[in-house]
Amino acid sequence: MSGRREEKKQLTRQAILDAGMRLFSVKGYKNTSITDLAVEAGIGKGTIYSYFTTKQEIFLAFCREQLYLINQDIVLSASCEDHVVDQMMAVFTGTFHFIKQDREFGRLMLRESFFPTEHNLEQSQKIENLYIDMLVPILQRGQERGELRSELDLILVIGHFYGLFLITISAWFTERLASGDDFLETLKTMFYQTMYGLAPA
To answer: Which range among 17-26, 93-102, 111-120, 166-175 shows the weakest confidence by mean pLDDT?
Structure first.
């Protein structure tokens, strides 16, 4: 019985996420209410609050699942022997393509990920942990091959690279970088410039 109950919970949760993405795409994020989501998902409004506290939390949960799937594909297709920068670029390129699909969604995801409200803190931390789990092994392999100094704090290194990603994505949002190709070329250049400071003497 517990297995069936858990399966039903997962199906209901997924129905809420699917309803969110359909309505956000058609009506826009701001114009979609929790009531709208409940009707679209075919459940009661109260049921939604059993799974999510806010509309932002629904959105972030969807983003986390999509980013996880994107990153899993990257892990399976990437070569562990590639240079650290190339592997890091693969991860952040996947994120960029996800954000690029819809600027409103991308802007909201970045805002709620880095400046979360108290209600969205857990979902934001899950997105953060997703990147940590993905990037730490890449950096560890880079240390083993001598591409990074062995004494570096890898969490701080991740923060450094992610900071470069945010600067570059901001330039794309403000159209200082006119295209996706400009974004990727700029980000890769900044990553390689950073590596000179992180490599062994």
So the answer is: 111-120
